[in-house]
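Whiteboard transcription, Tuesday session. T.W. wrote the structure tokens on the left side:
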């Protein structure tokens, strides 16, 4: 099903099935496209963002971006010439780790082969997620062998969890526990495996991390330590701490500016040769 997405110059193709996992609901995405030819200026390929929503791995939907962004966030990016595939994935009440990160990888694989049907595929392919979605975006880009590292051309992660071993280690009802299936203190090896900071390597795609310096839900140290680890191993990490901002960009003075800088990062990337 397609419609105009409520924004002039944008078409949305809804309910695209990007993967099937036996025993679960179909995994679907909505694809927001700039109208007209599959180019920004007639010569430049259109960047594509695979967007991974947040929600503590236990709630959320591709249809509900962060409240601070407004309901037209995806369509707004498309109106600026960035196509967006907003995905759903299995939540922790449906399936535990590594199900969600497997689903993100499956969405990237679909994008690499399925976008050609919509006149896309030559531009950079970027994972973009917030909170738990930022965690999944980072982890999917860093793991799965050399093929995963080459699957995306960059990552934008807003206030992501990067080290599960340092959050709510003994709480049996925490979001981290529900994601892993046990408190991280009881399964330290699994918590390390599920932490993006464990998997930094020099061949990782360029990454932009943005984090509020007043975030009490996911401390900014999660992004600070990750960016430092990735840079020290030879990878490309850009970190921006947003003054006065807490989780979900509450308290941020200029949310449109945060979006604009993230979009500029996406546009700056060069697609890898296949």
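and on the right, the sequence the group agreed on:
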């Amino acid at each position: 099903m397609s419609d105009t997405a409520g924004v002039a110059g944008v078409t949305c193709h809804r309910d695209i099935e990007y993967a099937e996992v036996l025993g679960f609901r179909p995994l679907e995405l909505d694809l927001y496209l700039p109208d007209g030819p599959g180019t920004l200026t007639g010569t430049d390929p259109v960047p594509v963002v695979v967007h991974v929503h947040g929600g503590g791995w236990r709630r959320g939907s591709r249809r509900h971006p962060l409240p601070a962004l407004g309901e037209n966030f995806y369509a707004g990016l498309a109106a600026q010439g960035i196509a967006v595939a907003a995905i759903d994935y299995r939540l922790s009440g449906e399936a535990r780790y590594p199900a969600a990160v497997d689903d993100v990888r499956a969405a990237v694989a679909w994008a690499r082969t399925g976008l050609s049907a919509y006149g896309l595929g030559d531009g950079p392919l970027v994972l973009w997620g917030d909170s738990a979605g930022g965690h999944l975006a980072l982890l999917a880009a860093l793991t799965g062998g050399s093929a995963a590292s080459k699957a995306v051309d960059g990552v934008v992660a807003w206030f992501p969890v990067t080290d599960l071993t340092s959050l709510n280690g003994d709480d049996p009802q925490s979001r981290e526990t529900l994601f892993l299936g046990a408190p991280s203190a009881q399964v330290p090896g699994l918590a390390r495996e599920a932490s993006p900071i464990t998997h930094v390597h020099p061949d990782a795609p360029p990454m932009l991390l943005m984090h509020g310096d007043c975030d009490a839900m996911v401390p900014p140290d999660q992004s600070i330590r990750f960016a430092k680890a990735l840079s020290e191993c030879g990878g490309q990490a850009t970190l921006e701490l947003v003054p006065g901002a807490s989780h979900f960009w509450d308290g941020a003075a200029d949310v449109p500016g945060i979006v604009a800088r993230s979009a500029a990062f996406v546009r700056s990337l060069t697609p890898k040769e296949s």
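Someone added at the bottom: The domain at 2-268 is CATH 3.40.50.1820 (Rossmann fold).
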